[in-house]
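Example record

One chain of 176 residues, shown exactly as stored in the release files.
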Amino acid sequence: KDLNGSDKPVAWNMTVEYGRVFDDIIGVGGDFDFAWNYVVTLKKIEGDTLDKYSHDYEKKVFFFPISAFLFVDPVPNTVVHPVIRGQIGFNMAYKHEKGFDSDEKEHEWEDNGFYYGILGKASIDGVYDLGAHAAVYAGFEYQWGIWRRKVPETKNKWWKPKYHGPGIRMGFSFLF
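Predicted structure tokens for this chain:
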């Protein structure tokens, strides 16, 4: 397949957090995330001298979770220390999916729109302190979510897409 989107697309995530650390071991707080995922599948159109491509399928998903977290840093005074973290919260998401037929006519999915539900994350990071108030971290995370959107003009039908999977966490931490 030429230039097709991945079967396991990547979602990107930016987070702003605020919390408190107690006894250098336990931390609690809240955060706001913005995550996005964009998948596009291209199909090749045969040309005379140059190959041309057109969109065959496109999917965009944007997530806006607000959540609380708890972490444990069992050995905070080592050079690289492990941090175990759990997070749960409310998520809002917007999904837009469309495809194109051979006449380039656009077809949108009927379940496009705004979703809401819960989000959970569990992770383990390796943290390297850059100083007393800054650190860099990298680790593994698993994320899951239960989201839904009511089917229009029904009383008891919902769309419930499944979004879950493993991820790699990397970033900087600053203490004020």
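Notes: The mean pLDDT is 88.
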